[in-house]
Write a structure and sequence with these properties.
Length: about 700
């Protein structure tokens, strides 16, 4: 079963050119007189905040022009004589150039995940590779570094931009001699190609299996009916969510679950295992060329954790109590399994989700299919918008008729309730389709920033794969789906509510081990009893809320699986760190097997290759997966503040918006947290959340 984590997709940290292109693509703001999403009247406009339709070759042409324009601007900055250089014509011009570049390519790289035409999606993938190579080249240019270095900022904001910009150049090797810097630049270009190919393989994986209906006994009949069928009548089941999760949670036959489990963890096994091992080895070489012992040491320099030793201490401190909790949970699951098979002696990996589902039925008297009837998508969205509206003082207005890349995609304008000013645009692409990225993510497409005397509003997109509407039934969400939606929309709030003045510093462009903090905080709103009830409404009669006793059983069942859920996070975090603290080539499959058994207490299925689909560490989270656990400490400390003041306290919500969401990277995450919390965060909140009882815990991360 995949972990319960959601990744934010990062496009290159900085951004874009083409003022004319941006002017053509952006709307000035929401139309006047719009109403909230979910009401009878919704605003309409023929325009769109980004280009969403492309002809063959167009993405490539736009990208080439963006690189050409950016290069010309950067060359002009580098060519300014030393005596004529100012903060305005060097540092601020550099930020504008990169921000313009991002505005141009952000929509293009989004298309690699979502565009229905595979040829055009492939162009988007090529842009993702070329943009990484381009930016690697920019941040290793000695002439640019020389032009920027030594400028004297005039304001605290300029000082922050200067320090972060110079740090990035120096972190990427500007202190090296030219020959070594050239080697680093070449190796990083090769690394970008490996990463892009890995992601392209995974995004385009079409693994399917065939099962008879008898083999799918236990899977809901509506799910079976929705599967495509072969001419012989067997069901074609994909390894994409939600097919995979439905079979894993409900199929009574162990052989069926084992078969799809093996297929899931063998997606792109041969090609991607080799690509990952090459990437890890190349990262190690790059780090050593830059003067670091390992890639993890390189990546952690400048993050909140600061060092590999700090991260490993954090993980190992949590590992043992977490292992004890997981062992106790698995003992309970084994008892359930013995009731089905008296000869059973162990819980296998392909049993876990299935047995947890049985536990829901036996101990909590419900199943997910019963609960999801109370959470139709439109009703949930209306509830989510209402909660975020109360907290942050914003409204969500659907932009009807806007051009989109696929008919089911929806666009919302987000505005301040106080003055009706537009603060951003949010695309929702919520259901599976052929050729679409198969998981869940949020993307900064256009960064918010000061531009031409006004504030350019940001654009974000949530890419998801929830159960699609079928027949007369709308999309119905499980509690797990609700958490996912709140998590990804938490990233979107971080992107959209920014007020940072610089594109390279706005929204989610924060320290990597802080970026999951807002999303992992806001996902906890789902588990508040009153709020869970407030977003509910039976799909046949939305005024019928989830019964209080069922609601409470759902929350209790979620608590019962905390050990295994967080052990999954621990396993991935340790695996990632072991890959990237290695000082010689790594056999990723062996490390994965070893780490899984060490953390989970049971062996992984032999013959599987989980690292081949560990997309996070080839899409930005390399030596960074620990951040899910690390930032959860911060997130839960934030939640504790809301629990004290009220989960819908607008006073706390506006403070959260102003002190954390709006600030982007204008201050270190530790400063933002201190400003909001009024104290240092500590581990106690995480232990309490997981249900680990410690006589003494460490204070802080």
């Amino acid at each position: 079963m995949p972990t319960r984590l959601r990744n934010i997709r990062y496009y290159p940290v900085a951004a874009g050119v083409g003022a004319l292109l941006v002017a053509l693509l952006m709307i000035a703001g929401c139309l006047q007189g719009g109403t909230s999403a979910g009401s009878a009247e919704n605003r309409t406009t023929p325009a769109a905040p980004i280009q969403t339709r492309y002809s063959t070759g167009e993405i490539t042409r736009i990208n080439d022009q963006a690189e050409e324009d950016a290069t010309a601007s950067l060359n002009a900055i580098a060519a300014i004589p030393p005596g004529q250089r100012t903060v305005e014509n060097t540092l601020l011009a550099y930020d504008r150039t990169l921000s313009d570049y991002n505005d141009a390519i952000g929509p293009l790289t989004l298309m690699r995940y979502v565009y229905p035409d595979p040829a055009i999606a492939a162009e988007g993938s090529e842009v993702a590779t070329s943009s990484q190579i381009f930016l690697n080249g920019v941040t290793t240019r000695r002439d640019l570094y020389s032009a920027l270095k030594g400028q004297v900022p005039q304001t605290p904001d300029e000082a922050r931009l200067y320090n972060e910009t110079i740090r990035e150049f120096e972190h990427n090797g500007l202190r090296l001699p030219d020959d070594r810097l050239a080697r680093v630049r070449e190796m990083r270009a090769n690394l970008s190609s490996l990463e892009s190919q890995y992601m392209f393989n995974l995004n385009n994986d079409n693994t399917t299996l065939e099962f008879t209906e008898e083999e799918l006994t236990g899977v809901p009949s509506a799910t079976i009916a929705a599967f495509k069928k072969t001419p012989q009548g067997t069901c074609i089941v994909t390894t994409k969510y939600p097919d995979y999760t439905s079979v894993m949670a409900n199929a009574d036959k162990s052989g069926t679950r084992k078969k799809i489990f093996a297929a899931y963890f063998n997606r792109q096994a041969e090609a991607n295992t080799a690509l990952l091992e090459q990437a890890i080895d190349l990262r190690r070489q790059i780090a050593q060329e830059l003067g670091y012992a390992t890639w993890a040491d390189f990546q952690l320099d400048g993050r909140m954790a600061k060092s590999t030793g700090t991260v490993m201490t954090f993980l190992t401190t949590l590992q043992e109590p977490l292992r004890e909790k997981t062992r106790a949970e698995f003992a309970g699951l084994l008892s359930i399994k013995k009731g089905l098979d008296p000869q059973a002696t162990t819980v296998d990996p392909w049993d876990i989700v299935y047995l947890q589902e049985i536990r829901k039925k036996q101990q909590y008297a419900y199943n997910d299919d019963e609960v999801r009837e109370y959470f139709p998508m439109d009703n949930v969205l209306q509830g989510l918008f209402s909660i975020y509206g109360t907290l942050f003082g914003i409204g969500f207005d659907e932009v009807k008729g806007a051009p989109v890349w696929s008919p089911e995609v929806r666009l919302f304008c987000v505005r301040n309730l106080s003055d009706n000013a537009t603060v951003g645009y949010l695309y929702l692409d919520l259901y599976p389709r052929d050729g679409k990225d198969a998981w869940f993510s949020e993307s900064d497409v256009i960064k918010g920033r000061q531009k031409n005397g006004s504030y350019q509003v940001p654009v974000a997109a949530i890419i998801a794969n929830f159960q699609a509407p079928s027949g007369n039934k709308p999309s119905l969400l499980t509690p797990y789906d609700l958490e996912t939606l709140f998590h990804e929309s938490g990233h979107a709030m971080h992107s959209l509510l920014t007020t940072a003045p610089y594109g390279t510093m706005s929204g989610t462009s924060v320290e990597w081990d802080f970026v999951e903090t807002p999303s992992q905080a806001l996902e906890e709103w789902v588990w508040d009893p009153q709020l869970l009830e407030s977003v509910s409404g039976h799909y046949t009669n939305t005024s019928q809320k989830i019964p209080a006793d069922l609601r409470d059983r759902v929350i209790a069942a979620q608590q019962a699986s905390m050990g295994s859920d967080y052990s999954n996070r621990m396993e991935r975090s340790l695996e990632d760190m072991r890959f990237h603290t290695a000082t010689e080539p790594v056999n990723v499959t062996e490390v994965s097997y070893q780490t899984y058994e060490e953390v989970m207490g049971i062996p992984q299925l032999a013959g599987t290759h989980q690292p081949a689909s560990f997309d996070h560490i080839m899409d930005g989270y390399d030596a960074g997966y620990y951040s899910y656990l690390w930032s959860k400490v911060y997130a839960l400390s934030i939640v504790d503040t809301f629990k004290r003041d009220g989960m819908t306290s607008q006073t706390a919500g506006i403070k959260f918006r102003q002190e954390i969401l709006a600030r982007g990277n204008m201050e270190d995450g530790s400063v933002l947290l201190k400003n909001f919390l009024g104290k240092e965060p500590d581990m106690e909140a995480l232990y309490r959340h997981i249900g680990i009882h410690m006589s003494r815990t460490s204070s802080g991360t």
